[in-house]
Amino acid sequence: MKKLYMFLFVFILALAGCTDDSNVEEQAAESEGENSGGEDIDFSLLAMPSSLDPHAANDGYSLYVMINIYETLVRMNEDLELEPGLAESYEQVDDTTWEFKLREGVTFHDGSPFNAEVVKANLDRVRDPEVGAPLEFLFTEIEEVEIVDDYTVNIHTARPFAALPAHLAHPGGNMISKEVIDRDYENMEDGGQPLTEVNADPVGTGFFKFEEIAEGDHITLTRNEDYWGEPASPASVTFKAVPEDGTRIAELSTGDADLIYPVNPSDVARIDDTDGARVEQHESASMSYMGFNVEKAPFDDPDVRRAIAMAIDKESIINEMLEGIPAVAETPLNPTVNGHSDDLDPIEYDKEAAKQLLEESGHGDGFTAEIVVNDRTTSDIATYIQQELSDLNITLEINQMESGAYQEYTANGEHDLFMGSWGTVTLDADYGLYPMFHSDNHGAPGNRTRFANDEVDQLLDAARTETDEATRMQEYADAQQIIIDEAPLVPIYHSVLLAGINDDLEGYYQYPSSFPYLKNLE
């Protein structure tokens, strides 16, 4: 659109010599009116969302789009503090009851009202076993959602649950129009699959609203002119699927894209040296790792997993493959997360000890295994690990998949090993550990290693309801130490979020969760 506006401006000037002043002024005013409408932002992502239903999808690319359409009762501000969102206020009135006062006068994109009935419908749906929402784990502690009046709800938990506001701030707590939820249930009653109607017609209260989708190619959102708060600056945002890093960079350099994400660390200098473009860096709450399928031999043997963990030189990966940008990860939680501990004993790099442990486990002659990746960065790291493990007589066969196929393959447990990452969206240890390592969450909810340990389950269950913060943090530390020792995955690095952006744009922000905040782009 910037190019279009410049063309119109030049065209108007050219006409000045052959038209009267009033016509020129009229045309200029029309052009100025178009400019005042805000930018049309083109945002190139590696992949398209797997769903636009907040209760159905927990992959990054789905969340990047959905957070612009929907809103939550509680939200995290740019200072990383929880604050009221669609709730005007909230408070814990006793150990197991939270009262939420809702904003009045808020409407959904379809014109339907936001009220207590809507909140109950959403939180009941995400917990409904007939729906089978992958995001159910966020709200399993909720026992009942009570409508007090049109704009007050009490959320009752089975036990004390200190992390409830943080969980409600997760995109899984996004509020969907009740009219669309009702249609989804009607579809289920007619024999249809759950979680389909909302995906087809995503209706929220957010500052952008859904405009169109071209499957596998792009999704367009337009500004919600009736937004209850300050409206968005951009007139629209179009998310495009551009799987190749080089193609995304080329689009940024030619102006065909205003934003691109992700950026490979090895491409940062190239973009920064490009006229009219830059890379913005933001801290993350993520942990990138190599995961095992602990249900498959020989990875069902903790000694095999520990030996492989010992054989991976994380600092070399970061310095040689990632331009030294990320930080070494020794534990499952990023330092930005409440519950991270510096007092844990990590598995140290020691290739000779790794060989000896592999011999003792009966696998000194090595074996062949598949490792699944889904982009250039993970493919490059897998190639590096492939070389490292060849010293242990382990042959890795790298299988690069499209993002959606990768999600399904690893959720179904068909893999041997995989490269993955997890962002602790809530910045609280419960979300960083419970979906990743609790045995209730195998597959799509987050536990793609299929790890199961009774003691870890007990600690994570206890920490969820612990009201003493020091005790809660110790329970998380104890759980992390067991996880490190059992090695269902190898933490490799804590990433820095890298986005390529047009120099003409300001106001970009990216949460540590990796969610891009696009409302103030101009």
UniProtKB/TrEMBL annotation:
The family this protein is said to belong to: Belongs to the bacterial solute-binding protein 5 family.
Signal peptide, first to last residue: 1-16
Descriptive protein name: Glutathione ABC transporter substrate-binding protein
InterPro entries reported in the protein's UniProt record: Peptide/Ni-bd (IPR030678), SBP_5 (IPR039424), SBP_5_dom (IPR000914)
Organism, scientific name: Salinicoccus sesuvii
Domain Solute-binding protein family: 81-442
Keywords: Signal, Transport
SUPFAM superfamilies hit by this protein: Periplasmic binding protein-like II
PROSITE patterns reported for this sequence: PROKAR_LIPOPROTEIN (PS51257)
